[in-house]
């Protein structure tokens, strides 16, 4: 049975909950990004939310609805690589709840610290997101905590508020590129597009080192795939979400894969062209657009910078890979390594 996307009225209602906690984020058309892609591009700055990523919107709406229908719930648990956990922590604090968030071992130390600063009980378990999700479900059952999924109608409705902002400001976008982690971002784009009656094409972007959604999309059925990305941890999905995959199957033009090398290049370009910091997943949309550059000329393109929560050490290594010419005007790249992987 087809998944029913939220209506326009439901998205507007969810947006009111979001705006009680934060303002709308800006969208800018940066000259150097336009130059790089040789077309008109609009960057949606979800790195400007109070938690530094688009996920915050979903957590606000989900926990608002949970507090209304089950005010007795005081403990919530979920799994994350960081931004979903920050979202849950921020919203839980507003409703007097305790958030328990499971992260994989070796997760971003700065994302972990940011979650703890919001009062989150950070639990390290396993080596990848799927391990964390299964452990969170076990904790929920053992402790009678409420399990927050990575994808849910309320999460989708909250996240869709940023797409409603972008599509309302720029209703004539020809195409948008959307990174896919667990799918709330791209499914929210589909919901907002439908609600506003737009013809904008949606292209999904996954990591070439985490191909579960791309492989599933192309095969027409749910498939697992190994995860080995070192930069785009927000895209490190091994098992697609059933609801997300169904929406993607019916709403997305195609899905492309970007390498960590392409992601690193996009992170650098975003910084030099806009002086905004992007985490790996946050730069994936731009990486995807750069990959398809030749086919975008003459089109109006929308790209979310969906998160800026990158560890300083990782970002400094990537930015430090620039080797400037003697006149300091012509940057060029050199080879470098991060976490055992070589980039150019």
Automatic annotation (TrEMBL):
Its cofactor is pyridoxal 5'-phosphate. Residues 24-307 form the Tryptophan synthase beta chain-like PALP domain. Pfam families: PALP. Keywords: Lyase, Pyridoxal phosphate. InterPro entries: Ser/Thr_Dehydratase, TrpB-like_PALP, TrpB-like_PALP_sf. GO terms for biological process: isoleucine biosynthetic process; L-serine catabolic process; L-threonine catabolic process. Transmembrane segments: none annotated. NCBIfam families: PRK06110.1 (NF004771). This is Threonine dehydratase. It comes from Sapientia aquatica. The lineage of its organism: Bacteria, Pseudomonadati, Pseudomonadota, Betaproteobacteria, Burkholderiales.
